[in-house]
Amino acid sequence: MFALVDCNNFYASCERVFNPKLRHQSIVVLSNNDGCIIARSNEAKALGIKMGEPYYLVKAKLKQHGVAVFSSNYTLYGDMSARVMQTLEQFSPEIETYSIDEAFLNLQGFTKDLTLYAAEIRKTVKQWTGIPVSIGIAPTKTLAKMANHLAKKTPELNGVLELSHPTLTEMALAKTGVQDIWGIGQQSAAFLSRSGIETALQFTACESRWVRQHLHVVGLRTQEELRGISCLPLELVPPLKKGITTSRSFGKKVSDKAELKQALVTYTSRAAEKLRASHLQARHLHVSIRTNPFSKTDKWFSNATGLTLPHPTNYTPELVQYASQCLDAIYRPGFAYTKCGIMLTDLVEEGTGNLDLFYPANASKQQALMQALDQLNRHYGKGTVSLAGTGTKQRWRMLRSLKSPHYTTDLKAVIKAIA
Questions:
Q1: C-beta contacts of 404-412 below 8 A and 24+ residues apart
Q2: Torsion of Cα atoms, 42 then 44 then 46 then 48, to 10°
Q3: N or C: which terminus of the chain has fewer CB atoms within 10 Å of its end residue's CB?
Q4: How far is CA 17 from CA 58, 76, 404, in A?
Q5: What pairing do the DSSP bridges indicate for beta strands 160-162 and 280-291?
Q6: Cα 13 to chain center, whole Å?
């Protein structure tokens, strides 16, 4: 048996934990540069506010209905996610962190009433972190995902649905549209609908050979999962990342090459930090820049280039050096740039890549320097120590004028209780 634990309206719930005044208020969270709506509370959904709507188009409506608006605060959300996952580890020896707000738990062999056990999990997570969760329990991960979806949408279930009885499972399959099946993409769902298959129950009744022919092995695996045959084990060890990308839109247009380079150095430093945190090194680097594709006044320009590094590395100054060379190759004056980014690919574990004759003799000193840099930034806050090339004013930084404090990671933002 698997349990899928999913945090309800996670970003909005994180904001509510530290501001009780928001408990019954509509909340939306915006994307980078306060561009689009990426999270909504149930109250905001009831107002008809859609996911992905541009903020400037609905700003008046949000103000009219007294909706609380927040810039994305990924530092807070990431830390709250870690707290939720640590809490869930108390309830199962095996846990797969599926996303920032979802986790699968292995409940195989548990002799307890699983519905009551799930209710205990919900109560503990809410008490320890303040985050409400919904839980779906089933013999396969796909069915658990479906059970979770129904538990979240059906208030009388109190956030928990266990699909262990065939009759209940059949009812759940009949209530689930093919577009809501985990593992069925938009195009596959449209194809199934054209073929007269509208529900998960109808999909499970299809001939397996037909499913394999039209939806290939992934569709067949999904069908088997819906039939109660487990095909997807827990991923207890996260797979190695295939690439790391750091890309942001600017808070203001950038025409000056020096300012553009500041942004690129900042993003490269962040990407290198992510590499070291995962104990990886990169063998390929790719840099891109662009103007605003939707602007009616600015000229459109987009360019990108990449190069293979002489040897695998996660040393920030070296990555910055090669990223700057790429920028020199693609930059064109006379344009108002709105975005740049760096992508590190062909990743290998530290110490496993093939070295060349010119591999730096002082590599151990470079590693020690980066360890000291990362420790200082973890202890005193991101960006405490950085390369001079990142600049000091950074007028290009993305807009986050509505961001809440870093309540859990910044001592200055810790809430004070006065007795």
A1: 404/15, 404/18, 404/19, 404/70, 404/71, 404/73, 404/76, 405/18, 405/76, 406/73, 406/75, 406/76, 407/17, 407/18, 407/76, 408/76, 408/79, 408/80, 408/83, 409/75, 409/76, 409/79, 409/381, 410/381
A2: -140
A3: C
A4: 25, 11, 12
A5: unpaired
A6: 16
Distance (Å, whole) CA 354 – CA 348: 10
Distance CA 363, CA 358 (A): 11
Q: How many CB atoms lie within 10 A of CB 404?
A: 18
pTM: 0.84
CA distance 99 to 6: 9
Structure tokens at 24: 């019954």
CA-CA distance, 42 to 202, in Å (whole number)?
A: 30
Phi-psi region at 230: left, alpha or beta (left = phi > 0; alpha = psi -120 to 50): beta
Write down the residue that tokens 């961001």 correspond to.
403
Domains (range + CATH), the chain? 2-157 (3.30.70.270), 174-226 (1.10.150.20), 243-390 (3.30.1490.100)
Question: Residue 351's pLDDT is what?
Answer: 76
Asked whether the predicted pLDDT for residue 403 surpasses 80, the reply is: yes
Question: Which has more confidence, 320 or 295?
Answer: 320
Find the mean pLDDT for residues 39-61. Answer: 93
Q: Give CA–CA dist 249/228, Å, rounded.
A: 45
Strands 160-162 and 133-138, sheet pairing: parallel
Q: What share of the chain is helix, strand, coil (3-state, %, to 5)?
A: 45, 20, 35
Two tokens at 277? 């945190």
Helices of type H across 309-402: 316-330, 363-380
In degrees to the nearest 10, what's the CA dihedral of 357, 358, 359, 365?
A: 130
**301 pLDDT higher than 90:** yes
Q: What pLDDT is attached to residue 198?
A: 96
Q: Determine the Cα–Cα distance for residues 154 and 141; give it in Å rounded to an integer.
A: 20
Q: Does pLDDT of 135 surpass 90?
A: yes
Cα–Cα nearest to 88, from 4, 153, 157: 4
- Give me the chain's average pLDDT, please: 92
